[in-house]
Structures are given as structure tokens and as C-alpha cells.
Amino acid sequence: MTNQKIPYKIYLEENEMPKQWYNLRADMKQKPEPLLNPETLQPVTLEELSGIFCAELAKQELNDTDAYIDIPEEIRKFYRMYRPSPLVRAYCLEEKLQTPAKIYYKFEGNNTSGSHKLNSAIAQAYYAKQQGLKGVTTETGAGQWGTALSMACSYFDLDCQVYMVKVSYEQKPFRREVMRTYGASVTPSPSETTNVGRAILKEHPGTTGSLGCAISEAVEKAVSTEGYRYVLGSVLNQVLLHQSVIGLETKTALDKYGIVPDMIIGCAGGGSNLGGLISPFMGEKIRGEKDYQIIAVEPASCPSLTRGKYAYDYCDTGRVCPLSKMYTLGSGFIPSANHAGGLRYHGMSSTLSKLYDDGLMEARSVEQTAVFEAATEFARIEGILPAPESSHAIRVAIDEALKCKETGEEKTIVFGLTGTGYFDMVAYEKFNNGEMSDYIPTDEDLKPGFDSLPKVNS
Amino acid sequence: MTNQKIPYKIYLEENEMPKQWYNLRADMKQKPEPLLNPETLQPVTLEELSGIFCAELAKQELNDTDAYIDIPEEIRKFYRMYRPSPLVRAYCLEEKLQTPAKIYYKFEGNNTSGSHKLNSAIAQAYYAKQQGLKGVTTETGAGQWGTALSMACSYFDLDCQVYMVKVSYEQKPFRREVMRTYGASVTPSPSETTNVGRAILKEHPGTTGSLGCAISEAVEKAVSTEGYRYVLGSVLNQVLLHQSVIGLETKTALDKYGIVPDMIIGCAGGGSNLGGLISPFMGEKIRGEKDYQIIAVEPASCPSLTRGKYAYDYCDTGRVCPLSKMYTLGSGFIPSANHAGGLRYHGMSSTLSKLYDDGLMEARSVEQTAVFEAATEFARIEGILPAPESSHAIRVAIDEALKCKETGEEKTIVFGLTGTGYFDMVAYEKFNNGEMSDYIPTDEDLKPGFDSLPKVNS
To answer: What angle, rounded to 10 degrees, do the helices at A425-432 and B173-181 form?
Structure first.
């Protein structure tokens, strides 16, 4: 079907949507290193993990042998409400850039959570419901994950308790209200509802909170409340598994029209979007069936892949979760106030870290102002106002398309457009006013983070 | 194809998208009354209209003979970026309501303007560009129309000057920033940039503005600036024409699956969405080919159809635009601070007014709290957080589905979901906090408006 006219948007039919998630780890020759119990420093057991996470999700977390896992029918039903997401041919952008490159993006923003996070939220809520739990707890910074989880819990009549970093709670009242509209209870963190919250408030009475503290509160709340578990929106293997729906749909849509990408680009914070998008393509690459250039894009202000160390580290600054071997800046690294809240994470998915370490993918870091330039250009040409996180991928996609313009190469570029920026207008305002600044940490700035790496590495 | 399984979302193929708009007035046996020049009280001429509006749009405004008007290829190209919009089968809502009714909604919110307004904005910007204009002016209250127009002007490299009611400018900084991101200049109204603005500021130094004042400023700016025209997002015939794309897509999608609706429901402020949605169905009804129950839904606080008078009135409170015969509460009626800003309009499209007067459609008014109850229920079940305006249609659709539950009738209900509520979280917050109030004007409250009707009626 190669000569067929490619539509602006490729939507799969319902019967073409994936019925199984793809578990890339099963096909990896070199598996990611196992999670370690932070106390014993031994690989975590299913039983240990099941105290924090839902039992089925703990199983998925440890499963690196089954390549395909059935998507339960109830989740597929929910997926059908907002999926398939369109694979868009960026004809207008190509024309504007005058590039011979062919640009496609998989757009995950057409749902009320505004991002791909819903793909995993609904799965996690489903397994919590199946287990007979009363509810789940989580933390949220910028609010995308909290919103997605609220929607998912509302669908399954589960209680949803979100610890929202206090500064975001106050500065992003609209995000908070979306969560409340979906029935979630949203608590500014640190709070008086947990031991760790009370201790922090006592020590730092005026603190506006941090993601690390919010995670610790959410975990404490989950493990100390009958019928609750803790859920997380990125980094974990289970999350990448659920997000494989992005890549599987993308691949089916491309295959339908005989399109073979040369390059796949995605932003990477914890890695859930990128890991999901690339999974079936990386599977082919690992099995030697095809070759693709795969590029992770991260902010220059929080460069875990490009400047981090591949080491065991704490996933959370509260140091209550298992240790993961990953590219990390150290849990003691404090990211600057970059506006892409979803990319302000010190570490990276252990799966992606392993692939990167094995040379199967590349990484680039980009600066904030250049990212917002790309975001604004994209918004004006393609009509979609992108999230700051997603705009990291747009920046590199445009750069690569412009390289093609110089070389005359007709490369096919696919990138992940993870979400919309409707709740990020404070950042756009700064950019519109010419008040946005860039920050690249010096080696000196990175030192405290590296010093915080646990001793297990030495 | 009646027995075919109806998918959750029906997306047309690109080649099934409309190539022509449908001009319902051409098929109306009783035409709407003509616009009058506010000074001469004679029907406005094409020349007079062309001083305010783009020439081609003025022609469309007066055209009640051509049933089909070609959509220029450049507009169709833009449509392909965000259209077709999905016709969604509300399976989950049906299940939750336990109704035998079949519910469909045409969802126009999957674009950055967040509503159907973009359908007309891109058309109006196109004709302005074709005419060689430098730019356009408009007013915006809640901001949906201003956002859509900013996007359209940015696409065609046209200057876009938006007068935004000062209170909204200050209370909705995010809407303002979206417009600025698309390159529009946004001026809080009243402003020092026009005679009318300066006069009002002198008389009422602390005023936070009104839509009427913003319209007057935008019109003054357009007619006094070389190379500019004024554009409007609703009420006008030209706008209903462009919005027919909603109804045409809906009809094609239904026909494809052999679905015949019993009932079509839409919210009505100025009438652009409802007029567009119902147009091809109303055409069949007028031609006696089919019968449909068609329901306009308006806020009880601003009940132009259900409690207004069918009379000539000013379209704007500044009284600079032509007089239109319509259902109106009088340009002197000051709507209460209902949160559905898009429905706070004293009048109604002259086409819809005529159809209503001729008994071809019904109207209902609903109260704000009941509307937000429906909005929240819908958001939780169907996953989309609706705009307050759209939620008026949801309220009546749910009410009708519940009636079917009682009677056992398997009615097919189609309603227009015009947009998303992401920029309306202040309203949702009020509702979530139990602080939302209802307001139904007394006959006494309506009197000043009726007293303001022009003498031409007597």
C-alpha cells in the first residue's frame, strides 16, 4: 500500500487495536538489573513488592519472560473511549520547514488527563479493583498523573488519594479542581496526615514541599491503611508495559500504509512514554529484524541519560522504594525549576537505562528556551498547543527535519506528542514575555547528587 | 449496515469529509427576516455590510438561495488537521443510566481552541487573507472564540487584535496566554485604543468592561484601520453556514451505519453550534423527507428562546451592528454571571429564531446547578470534562435518556458536545465546593431588556 495517499491522521479501527501489551524485557538479551530491597540489598521478592503495589502489578513488575500479556477486556473497553489515538502526518509542518523529511507524530493528548498517563492509570486502577482494594494513593507534581489516576479511579469507583506538592497545589488550582471533579481527594504535601509529613512540617514549617516528600507520604498512607496500595505513573516496568499500547498502535498504523520509520524520537523523564512508544520497534531492533535510530530527549537542566551515572539508586528522595539500577543524577540531585515538570526526575526507567547502556538508543539534551520556540512554532503550524514535556521531542524532530533539508535526505521521522499544554500557560506566559531562562548544571552542581548515590555501587 | 456493531467512535475517512457547506436558508420556505441598517431601518446592502465584514463573508451573510457553497481547498486542508471530529457512541453513559436509549455525541473539543469555534474562525480568516487584508479585530468574553480566531489568523499570517472583556482578561490569564502564543494581541476592554473605550473609561474609571463595549471597540478599530475588518464568532448566518460542517459530518457518520436519530439536542447561545449541527437534518425536515425532534437548550438565567420576544433588535449592546429579527431579551438585558459565558447572549441567530417561531424546533431552559451535575456525571463516566456551555445539552440528553428508561422507548439521541471545560475550572471549583447558585430572572427582571427594544417593532 506504499503508494497510497497518507491521510493527515491515521486512526485504527477498533478491531485493529492491541489486545495484548508487549513486554519488551522478554526480548532483551541483556535484561535490566533487578530491583533491590533497600534494607537487605537483595533482589526484591514478589511478596515484598506486593506490600506496596497491587499483587498483579507486582507480578508484571518482575515479569521479564512473557513477551505478550493480555489486556483485560474492561481496560480495553475504557481504551476504546479515548483510543486509538491518531498517528498524525505533519504535512503543514513539513511544508513550513521545506523539508524532504516525512514527519509523523503519535498524539496522546486527546483525553481529559491531557496525556498518555491515562494508559497506565486505568490499568493500575483495574488491578486494584480486581484485588478488592478500597483505593490507591499516589503523588503528583505538575498534575498530569494525578489527573489520569483520578479519572481511572472514578471509572472503577475506587477511592483516590493524591498527595500534591504544595507549591503546585497552590499554583495550579485548576489541575487540582479537575482531580476533585473526578472525585479524588487532593492533599497538599507535606501534610498533617502522615508521620513523615508531620515531621517535615515540624522541621521546615514554611516548606512548599517536594516530589520526594509527596511520594513518601503517599507510600506511608498506602502501607498503613487497610485496603490501599500505592501506584506510580512512570519509571516502573509495569508502566512501560501498559504504555506499549502507544507503540503497538503506532506500528500497526505505519504497517497499514507500508511506512518504515528511520528515526523515533520521544521525551524522557521517567521513561514511560518513550519506553511505550519504542517498544515494538526496539523489539525488532533487538531481534535483528530492522534497524531504527531511537532518540531520547531530556532537558539540559536534568540530564540523567546524557550526564548521569549508570548505578543503583533510590527511585524516590524519601528512600522508601526499592533500589533500581538506572542512569541517575542521584536522589540528592535537586532539579532546577524547569517548566517541564514531568521531566524533572533524577533517574530513568531501568529498562531504558539498560538499552541506552547497551548502545541501542541515543540521548540528547535540549535547553528550555529552544524547547518553547519549537513548541510555539508547532502550535502555530499544526494547531496543537503541546505540553512542555512533549515539546522536547518536537525540538529534536524539527532539528532532524532541518538537517534533512540540508542533506536532501527523505527520512521518515516519528515522534511522540505525549500531551497538551493547557495547564502550563504560566510557562508559556514566561516565554511570551521573553522572561524564560536556561540553566545547565555545572559538574560542581551535579556533585551533591552523585555523592548521594548509595554505597551498594562501590 | 444496521446490524453492524457500532464502534465507540465513528471517524469519517478524509474522502468522506464535506466538500461543501450546507446553507439551510436556501431550503427554508419561510426565510429569516433581513438584517436592517440601524440608521435607515432598511435592509442592509452588500456594500454596507462589506464595510464591516470581509466582502465574501458579507455575500455569504446575505445568500439565502444557494443550498451548497464550496469549501475552499485551503480551508479543507486546515479542517483535515483537526477534523473529522468523532461521533461518539456513549456506551458507558447508557450502561450507567440503564437506559434503552442509544446516545451519540458529536465531540468538537479535540482541538486547541477547545470548541467548534475553529470551524468558522478558519473560514473567516481565509476570506480576510484572500481579500488581501492585513488583519481582523474581534471581541471575546470567555475566550473560546478569541482563541479559535488567534489560531486561524496565525495559520494565515494575519494580524489578530482581540478585545477581551477586562474582567475576563484578568481572571482568565491562561486563555489570554494561549491567544498570545498564537501571536494575537489581546487588549483588555475598555481600553485607551478607541474613542468608545476612552469615553467609557472617562465615565466609569473603574469598570471591568462588558461584551457590548468590547464589540464596539473591535468594530471601531476595524472600520477605522486600513486593511482591517471585524469578525464575529456566532449569531450570523455566515457562521451557521461554516458550522454546517458539524451536522454534515454527523449525518454522513450516522448514514454510514444506518442510524436514524429521533432527537437532536444542542446548547444555544448565539446559535452557531446548534445551527450547524442540525442543518442537514432540519433540511430534511423542511423538505418533508424525515421528521426529527430538535431541541435547543439555554440557561434559565438567559432564556432568549423560552422567554424572549421575536422582534428586531440590536445584535450588540453598543448598537453599531445591523438590526436582526430574532428571539431576544433586549440588548439592554444584562445576563447574570452564569458560568456558561458562551450562552450569556441576549439574542439568537435569526435563522434559528425563524425555525423556532415556525414550530420546527423546541427550546428548553435549564438551571446551572443541574447542568454541572450532568457535567460531572458525564466527565466521570465518559472521561471528557465538558465545557459548561456543552453541558446544557448533556443535561437534556440525560433527562431524555432517563425518560426512555421509564417508558422503555429505544430512542436514538444525538447531542452536540461543543467543547471542553479545561479553562472553566473556576466554575467547577464553585460546584465542587457546593457554592454554585441558580438564578431565574423574574418578569420584572426581564422588563428593562424588553423596554430597550428598538422602536422599529412598533
So the answer is: 50
Of B178, B371, B338, B386, nearest to A420 by C-alpha is B178
Compute φ and ψ for A103, nearest 5 degrees.
Answer: -115, 130
Residue B77 inside a domain? The answer is no
Question: How many structural domains are present in chain A?
Answer: 2
Domain that holds residue A136: 27-70+117-230
Please write the tens of the pLDDT for every residue from B135-168: 999 999 889 999 999 999 999 999 999 999 888 8
The helix/strand/coil state of B442 is: coil
Residues in chain B: 458
Q: Which residues of B are less than 8 Å from A174 in CB distance? A: 174, 422-423, 425-426
Report whether pLDDT(A154) > 50. Answer: yes
> A125-134, B87-96, B164-173, B420-429: which has the minimum mean pLDDT?
B164-173
- Could you say which DSSP state residue A64 is in? -
Which run of H or of E encompasses B135? strand B135-140
Chain B nearest C-alpha distance from A32 (Å): 35
Which range among A232-246, A289-303, A325-339, B110-124 shows the weakest confidence by mean pLDDT?
A: A325-339
CATH number at residue B204: 3.40.50.1100
Of A81, A382, A385, the CB nearest to B81: A382
Single-letter code of the amino acid located at A41: L
- Sequence length of chain A is 458
Please, which residues bridge with residue A365 across strands? Answer: A298
The verdict on a CB contact (< 8 Å) between B81 and A8 is yes
Q: List, as ranges, residues 410-429 from B with C-beta within 8 Å of A.
A: 420, 422-423, 425-426, 428-429
Measured between CB atoms, does B171 come within 8 Å of chain A? no
Please indicate, yes or no, if residue B458 is contained in any of the structural domains. Answer: no
**Nine-digit cell string for A412:** 521518515
Q: How far apart are CA A295 and CA A289, in angstroms?
A: 19
Say which residue the cell 479515548 belongs to: A82
- The answer to whether residues B292 and B35 touch, using CB atoms and an 8 Å cutoff, is no
Is A205 in the same domain as A291?
Answer: no
ipTM: 0.94
What is the per-residue pLDDT for B344? 83
For residues A4 and B108, the model is more confident at B108
| Cα–Cα distance, B296 to B356 (Å, whole number) | 9
B contact residues 76-105, partner A, Cβ 8 Å cutoff: 77-78, 80-82, 92
Instruction: Tell me, yes or no, if B157 comes closer than 8 A to chain A by beta carbon.
Output: no
B311 phi, psi to nearest 5 deg: -155, 160
Would you call A181 and B432 a contact, using CB atoms and an 8 Å cutoff? yes
Give helix B211-223 / helix B195-203 axis angle, nearest 10°. 150
- Are B341 and B224 part of one and the same domain? no
Cβ contacts of B47 within 8 Å, gap of 6 or more: none
Write down the pLDDT at residue B435: 94
CB of A169 less than 8 A from some CB of B: no
Question: What CA–CA distance (Å, rounded) separates A150 from A140?
Answer: 11
Q: How confident is the model at residue B202 (pLDDT cuts 50, 70, 90)?
A: very high
Contact with chain B for residue A157, Cβ under 8 A? no
Of residues B112, B182, B425, nearest to A177 (C-beta) = B425
Q: How far apart are the first and last CA of chain B?
A: 55
Residue B415: strand, helix, or coil: strand
Nearest CA in chain A to B180: A432
Could you report the per-residue pLDDT of A112-126, keeping only the tens digit for each?
Answer: 999 999 999 999 999
Same-domain pairing of A269 and A125 = no
pLDDT averaged over every residue in chain A: 94
What is the three-class DSSP state of B313? Answer: strand
- Give backbone dihedrals phi and psi of A453, rounded to 5 degrees, phi first: -65, 140
Interchain CB distance below 8 Å, B181 and A379: yes
Q: Decide if A182 touches B, using CB distance below 8 A.
A: yes
- Predicted TM-score (pTM) of this structure: 0.95
